Amino acid sequence: MELTRRFLDTGAVRMHVTEQGHGYPVVFCHGFPHTSFLWHRQLAALAAAGYRAVAPDLRGYGHTDAPADIAAYTNAAVIGDLLALLDDLGAEQAVFVGLDFGAQLVWELALREPGRVAAVAVLNNPFSPRPPRAPSEFWTDAAQRHFLHLAYFQEPGVADAELAARPREFLARVYYSLSGDYHYLDTWQNPPGLGYLDVLPKAPELPWSWLSEAEFDTVATEFERTGFTGGLNWYRNLDRNWALTEAFAAAKIEVPTYFLYGENDPDMEGFSGRDPLATLRANVTDLRAVVQVPRAGHLVQLERTDLVDAFLLDALRDLGVPARTRA
Q: Over the stretch 259-297, which tens digit does the pLDDT of each residue have?
C-alpha cells in the first residue's frame, strides 16, 4: 500500500494530507519542529495491519497553508481543520494520536468534541487541567534566570530569523537534544539573552541509530523551503489557548485514553508538573494504558518505532476497532 498525498480545503486553510491504507481512520498530529513525515513509519505499520492511517501537515507546516495572522494558530482554529478532515474522510469518529503540540491539540479536541473522538493515544505530553493563570505567568520568572525557549520564541521575527538562517543545523541539534541520547534540560544552564543555537548541543553526524540521513533530509528540505514561523506561531498562542478554554477549566478527559512516554522525555521531567502521571490519572476518566519506554526521549516514535507501533496496535485491538482484511 503506497503512501498517497492530497490537499483538502478545510474552509480556513488548504491542508496537505498524507495517508496510507484502508479501513478505520487513525489521525496523527505532529509537533514542533516536525511535519507529517515524522509519522511515516507509523503510517506504514498501521496500514499493513488494516487501518487507514492519516497524517496532515498541521497549519503553518509543510505544504499546508501558513496564515500571516498569529491568532490563526490557536488549538480551536486547528481543531476546525481536524473536523473538516474527519468530514472529508466520511468518518463520524477517528482515533487521534498526538505528540508535542499535536498532543495538546488532541487533548483539547477530546474536550471540545468528544463525540468525534473514538480514543486518543498520546505520546510524551500528558493531560493536565487548565491552570489558574496564563501559561506565560509561570515561565516569566524562570526565563529571567536562564534561557527558556518558551520565552525566546514569543517575539515575532527573532527566533524565526535565527532558525531560518541555519535550518539543518537547528533541526539536527534540537532533535538530538530532545532524544534520549541527551539531557535537554541542560540547556537551562545557559543565561537568558542567547539564541537557541547558542544553547543547543552540537549534534553527532548522521545517520543516528534511530534516524537516517534520508529521513532527516526529507524534513530539513521542507523547513529550508518554509522557514519556522508557522510552527513558532503555535508557541505565540499559548496564552490565547488558555483564554479560549475557560469553559473547560474543570473538565476531565472522558474518551478512552492510551499514554506512552519516553523515560528521558524532557516534557515529562521539566514541563508537566511535579507528578505528571498522578495528574494524568486524576483527570482522565478512562485511562486504559500507561507505558514507559526505557531510554527514549521526545521523538519516541522514531527512537523506538517498534514499541510505539505495538502500543498503537494494542490500543486499537483493545478498543475493538476492526482491522480491514485484504480481499
A: 999 999 999 999 999 999 999 999 999 999 999 999 999
Task: Please tell me whether residue 274 adopts helix, strand or coil conformation.
Answer: coil
Quick check: helix, strand or coil at residue 282?
helix
Q: Specify whether 100 is catalytic.
A: yes
Closest-CA residue to 220 (of 46, 88, 62, 70): 62
4-30 residue pLDDT tens: 999 999 999 999 999 999 999 999 999
Report the alpha-carbon distance of residue 93 to residue 87 in Å, rounded: 9
Q: Which amino acid is at 10?
A: T
What gap in Å lies between CA 321 and CA 38, rounded to an integer? 24
pTM strictly above 0.70: yes
The amino acid that residue 27 corresponds to is: V
213-254: per-residue pLDDT in tens? Answer: 999 999 999 999 999 999 999 999 999 999 999 999 999 999
Which residue in the list 65, 100, 160, 267 is annotated as catalytic? 100
Q: Give whole-number Cα distances, 69 to 60, 235, 264, in Å.
A: 11, 13, 35
C-alpha cell at 268: 515529562
DSSP of 127-151 = --PPPSS-HHHHHHHHHHHS--HHH
Backbone angles phi, psi at 65, to 5 degrees: -55, 150
Q: Enter the C-alpha cell of residue 299.
A: 521523538
Rounded CA gap, 311 and 115, in Å?
23
pLDDT of residue 326 exceeding 80, the answer is no
